[in-house]
Model the fold of this input.
Amino acid sequence: MRAAPPYFTNLGPFHALFSRGLPILMYHKLGPRPSGVRLKGLYLGESLFRRQLHQLRAAGFRSAMPGDVGANADAQPAVVITFDDGFRNVFEHGMQALVEQGFQAIEYLVAGELGGSNRWEVAEGEIPAPMMDAGQVRAWLRAGHFIGSHTLSHPWLTRLPEADAREEIAASKKRLEDAFGVAVDHFCYPYGDWNPRVRDLVQEAGYRTAVTTEFGVNDGTGDPFALRRILARYQSRSPRALWRRLQRR
Done:
C-alpha cells in the first residue's frame, strides 16, 4: 500500500489513511502570502482551501471536533479542521468557504495576543501578521465554529518552569472562557512542544483533549492529550519533493 504524503494537499492519497481513524487537519494562515515571509509553508491560498473542503464534502465527510475521537459509531467519514494561533486572515479568507461547504472548525487562540500579532515567529524585518480581535472571535463563534487554547503567549512549554507552564495553560483557558462565555475544552501545544509533565498540566487544567503536530490519524485507542494531526499546505515545489513525486508515479 502506498504511503500518504507527509502533508495534506488533496484528498486522493489520503483515502486509505483516513479510513483508519479520525483525521485532524492542521492549518495556520489563509490567503495571499506577503513577500518576505520566512515560514512560507504556513500560508495556504484561499482557492486551494476551498478545493480541499469541496473534495472532503464531495467524499461525504462531515465535521467533527477533537473530543469526537473514538465516538463515531456511524459509517459517515468525519474530519476535524483546526487552525493554530488565531490569525485574522483565517477570519477573512476562511469563513465563507467553511459556510459554503458546511464545515465547522476550531481555532486555537493565543489568548494574550487577541488583536495583536504573531510576535513569537517573526524574523527581524518581517511584517507581523495580525491576530483576530475579540469582535472577530465572537463572529467566529456566532457562525457555529469553536475555540480552543494555544496558551497565553505561545511559549515552548517544556522549557518553562512548571509554575510558568501551568499559568500559560490554565490562565489562557480561564481568560478565553471569561471573555467569550463558552467552554474551552481543547488545547494545542505551541510548536508541538510537549512532554509528560506538560501533558499532565493540560489535563489538570480541565481540558478534554490536546493536539500535537505528530503525523497520523486517531482511532480512539491513544492518549486524548496527544492527538495526531496532518499539516495542510500547498504542494512543495522543491526539487527533492518533485523527485519523490516522480518516483511514486
In short: The two ends are 13 Å apart (CA to CA).
